[in-house]
């Protein structure tokens, strides 16, 4: 057993009674470098975000053949509100257009879409589209795409603790019953396995408040490629290389 959450699936095989890891079941991606990609072409930053959005579909489509069942992408962080009004509004409009345009294809290709992050600050039109996409794809199981939108790990954990404290105050949860599993059940990601591999593009080696709790045992891969240049072949290379890593979760090699 390699997954900590007790979920075993496409990424594992049995060899002589011992499970050997084939590849990552859940890959999370920090899609970085859209702005620099656009600036290098003398274009506005939003041009890079549009090019980046096209890559999302390519990477989602590559997942089934690579045994990646869960893909989580960081589309907008709780810190991204600090960008210019023009860029934030452009990104929000891009998300609305992306969802409207891609809904049918995602449904027909067996992609189940979920969103994580706090929806309270998002505009109502976008939230309605997000809800619809989740509902329309809820029976799909080929690939599980999770889009982190207005997401930050610290914000997620704070919201989870607020809910958990509410249940303690209401008497439906006993303080002595709170353990790691309990908190996990209050997170936005409660139905997802932990990521096995986190990739960040664009040469930055930071985790930027992304899935901090969930990635406690993940492998990290930092690549120089800017997100709009991140092809399915680069993705496949990283996923294959993961198969030879030796994850021990704090234990020792037998
Ligand atoms: C980081 O690059 C990227 C973002 C903040 C936005 C990510 C959004 C997309 C890839 C497009 C839409 C995605 C979906 C799922 C529809 P950056 O702007 O920080 O780049 P820089 O570091 O070069 O400035």
**What are the low-pLDDT stretches, counting only 5+ consecutive residues below 50?**
1-20
Count of alpha and pi helical runs: 7
Strand-residue proportion: 15-25%
Shape summary: globular
Instruction: Name every ligand kind in the structure.
Output: farnesyl diphosphate
Give average pLDDT, whole number: 91
CATH topology of the domain at 21-151: Undecaprenyl pyrophosphate synthetase
- CATH H-tier superfamily of the domain at 21-151: Decaprenyl diphosphate synthase-like
Give me the side-by-side strand order of the main sheet: 5-6-4-3-7-8
Question: How widely separated are the two ends?
Answer: 14 Å
Structural features, described:
The chain is α/β, with parallel strands linked by helices. Among the domains are: 21-151, Decaprenyl diphosphate synthase-like (Undecaprenyl pyrophosphate synthetase, 3-Layer(aba) Sandwich), CATH 3.40.1180.10; 153-192, no CATH class. It has seven helices and eight strands. The chain has a six-stranded parallel β-sheet with strand order 5-6-4-3-7-8, sandwiched between helices. Strands 1-2 form a two-stranded antiparallel sheet. Residues 1-20 have low confidence and may be disordered. Residues 31-36, 45, 49, 52-53, 56, 73, 75, 80, 94-95, 98, 147, 202, 227 line the site of farnesyl diphosphate.
């Amino acid at each position: 057993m390699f997954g900590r959450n007790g979920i075993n699936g496409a990424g594992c095989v049995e060899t002589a009674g011992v499970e050997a890891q084939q590849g990552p079941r859940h890959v999370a991606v920090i899609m970085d470098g859209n702005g620099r990609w656009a600036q290098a072409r003398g274009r506005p930053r939003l041009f890079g975000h549009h090019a980046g959005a096209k890559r999302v579909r390519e990477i989602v489509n590559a997942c089934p053949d690579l045994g990646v069942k869960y893909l989580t992408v960081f589309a907008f962080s709780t810190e991204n509100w600090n960008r210019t009004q023009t860029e934030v509004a452009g990104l929000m409009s891009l998300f609305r257009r992306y969802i409207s345009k891609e809904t049918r294809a995602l449904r027909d290709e067996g992609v189940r879409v979920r969103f994580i992050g706090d929806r309270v600050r998002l505009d109502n039109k976008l939230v309605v589209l997000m809800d619809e996409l989740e509902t329309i794809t809820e029976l799909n199981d080929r690939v599980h795409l999770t889009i982190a939108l207005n997401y930050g790990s610290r914000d997620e954990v704070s919201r989870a603790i607020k809910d958990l404290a509410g249940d303690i105050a209401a008497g439906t949860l006993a303080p002595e019953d709170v353990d790691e599993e309990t908190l996990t059940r209050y997170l936005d990601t409660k139905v997802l396995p932990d990521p096995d591999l986190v990739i960040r593009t664009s040469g930055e080696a930071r985790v930027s408040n992304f899935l901090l709790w969930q990635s406690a045992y993940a492998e990290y891969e930092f690549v120089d490629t800017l997100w709009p240049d991140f092809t399915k072949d680069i993705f496949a290379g990283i996923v294959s290389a993961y198969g030879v890593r030796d994850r021990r979760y704090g234990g020792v090699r037998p």
